[in-house]
What we know:
Helices cover 37% and strands 12% of the residues. It is built from nine helices and seven strands, in the order ααβααβββαβααββαα.
Amino acid sequence: MRETCIESRPRALQGGPPVGNARRWRPGGRPQGRDRGRFLPWTNGAAMRESDSSEMEAPETLPGVGEAICNCRACPIGALDNRAVMGEGPRDAPLMIVGEQPGDVEDRAGRPFVGPAGRLLDQRLAKAGIERERAYLTNAVKHFKFARRGKRRLHKSPTTGEIDTCRWWLERERAIVAPRLVLALGVSAARGVLGKTVRISRSRGEGITLGDGAEAWVTAHPSYLLRLSGGKKAEQERLFDADLAAVKDRLEELTR
Ligand code: SF4
């Protein structure tokens, strides 16, 4: 069984407060002003002098990103009783699929897209003829944000500030995997990929060229489909299937 992030955390940090000034620091940035010489976002809380920071460069490999996000406290979500969930899939996958954040099931399993929404995604990908095993699946936000209700942990949507802060890690994954097409599932994922907020209904159905030449496509998150019923569910499932079919066709063109 692989070691989980939460097991690798110093005990004092498990469920504890954010390390350092989470609002001021951004992944990849340097502490400014009175924070100079304190912590960097991907450290596990060990004090670090500014002179040490040259040894702590941005990770260049997926395992390196996975290790770094375990210790990231750049936004308050990382201080909850959770673990970072790294993306998974081939290092050179032509397709990257991005969700919002790990859910309760994903947090417990330490893997992305293994809960109810992930199972629905698997079904729809198979229907569209897209092999999940050939895609790299990840999330815009790497830690599970929730509110406790008794023993239950209820999903809470990340804020735009939290998505923007975590975007640095998604960009690292994109730089390493270099997918030709990035499929964003839902508004939060679209913000993580595009760096701005878009409406799914206006943005779906066509590619958006990203700065590195890859194409971003936007569709609904499968968890949205799970919440619907009746005619609206059927209509949204039809749109979702059409989006996946278009993504498959475009991916074939881009990788021909
Ligand atoms: S959600 Fe992202 S930015 Fe926030 S602590 Fe986790 S890895 Fe860091």
